[in-house]
Amino acid sequence: MPVLMPRLRRSLFMGIRRQSREAALQYLFQEDFSEPAELEREDLADRFALFCGLFNVSKKGRSYALELLRLSFANRERIDDLIKQAAVNWRLSRIAVAERNILRLAVCEMLYIEDVPDEVAINEAVEIAKRFGGDDSPSFVNGVLDAVRKILRG
């Protein structure tokens, strides 16, 4: 029984992180359809809190989702440059909105979240792509993120 508890705790933690990633993705998806001037008027934390209230986002997952959002917005240029390098023959604007934002969040984790190994960020992104993307999304996301990993880690 003592061996089971750490696994259970770990799976619960990963469940919350998955919820956070999905909430961050849905928020970014929504933001892609908002006017830039509209977004500049309000603080990210306030906008995300409103989003969470409207869409019943779990309170446990909100802090990690907000951390991902802050990091991805603050480092958007670097994140997008890595995606552009890795997505050979694809312009960023031509990548579907869901896939583009899944990639952004995963690259953000690979760059800035120390306790998330690249393999976990990639696997989580692929699983989320299965849920939110099209039939080809998981393999596309996996291929681009693997290329990003090679760029970052050599």
Question: What is the gist of this entry?
Answer:
This protein is 78% helix and 0% strand.
Descriptive notes:
With 154 residues, the chain is mainly alpha-helical. Helices cover 78% and strands 0% of the residues. The chain contains eight helices and no strands. The protein has helices spanning 4-31, 36-41, 44-54, 59-74, 76-86, 97-112, 118-132, 137-153. Helix 1 (4-31) crosses helix 4 (59-74), helix 3 runs antiparallel to helix 4 and helix 4 (59-74) packs across helix 6. The longest helix has 28 residues, at 4-31. The radius of gyration is 16 Å and the shape is globular. Residues 1-12 have low confidence and may be disordered.
Chart the SSEs and their pairings.
Layout: H1 4-31, H2 36-41, H3 44-54, H4 59-74, H5 76-86, H6 97-112, H7 118-132, H8 137-153
Number of helical segments?
8
Counting DSSP E segments of at least 2 residues, the number of strands comes to: 0
The Cα radius of gyration reads 16 Å
Question: What is the strand content?
Answer: under 5%
Oligomer: single chain
Which ranges are low-confidence, i.e. pLDDT below 50, for 5 or more consecutive residues? 1-12
Q: Structural class of the helix and strand makeup?
A: mainly alpha
- Fraction of residues in H or I helices: over 70%
Shape: globular
What is the residue-averaged pLDDT? 89
